[in-house]
Amino acid sequence: MAPAGSGKIRLEVITPERVVLGEDTESIIVPGARGYMGVLPGHAPMVVNLKIGVVKFKQGGSYRRLSVSGGFFEVAEDKAVILAETAERGEEIDVNRAKAALERARKRLAARRDATVDAARAEASLQRAVTRLRAAGAAPEKVFGQAERERPEQE
Ligand code: ATP
Predict the structure, then answer these.
(1) Interval between CA 2 and ligand 1 midpoint (Å)
(2) Which domains, and CATH codes, for the chain?
């Protein structure tokens, strides 16, 4: 926990696989199920559901990013904990892997009338890939544009 009155809030990010992050921060912005929300040191205790999205946290005045695939965000006494199925720090994201996952998801969604395609699953996969690209600082708009041009006429 960051010491009370230190002007910091500790952020811990934990998945079933590993501890992704444990650092003191100046502020945190999370993708709440009802929209993005910001938390500063001294915030009242709370628990919210997260959707797939980018978490931003401030250190030394500048923001760092993480991707999370939903989960929970709990704040208590200048400590915030994210429990998520998967989470990655921006700098550890494999951009090519996320681009490939995005392409696969796009192709599945384009073929969604095929009874074997689980559209909800493909949509979630697409969201995770776009979020990873955003957290890594790779502009998904450009990836989308490129994907559009490379997409075959019929799938
Ligand atoms: P893929 O199809 O590339 O596996 P996915 O969305 O199905 O993507 P997940 O099931 O969400 O992958 O994650 C599986 C594991 O791989 C998790 O530990 C997650 O943190 C990690 N992971 C997934 N994509 C990336 C990536 N682009 N860079 C780094 N780690 C990743």
Answers:
(1) 30
(2) 9-90 (2.60.15.10), 93-150 (no CATH)
Q: What is the pLDDT of residues 30-40, one digit of tens each?
A: 999 999 999 99
Contact present, 31 and 51 (Cβ < 8 Å): yes
Q: Is 105 left (phi over 0), alpha (psi -120 to 50) or beta?
A: alpha
Chain centroid to CA 42? 24
Tokens for 35? 């929209």
pTM of the model: 0.88
Q: Which of 54, 82, 97 to mutate to test the pocket of ligand 1 (most atoms within 8 A of CB)?
A: 97
93-111 pLDDT per residue, tens: 999 999 999 999 999 999 8
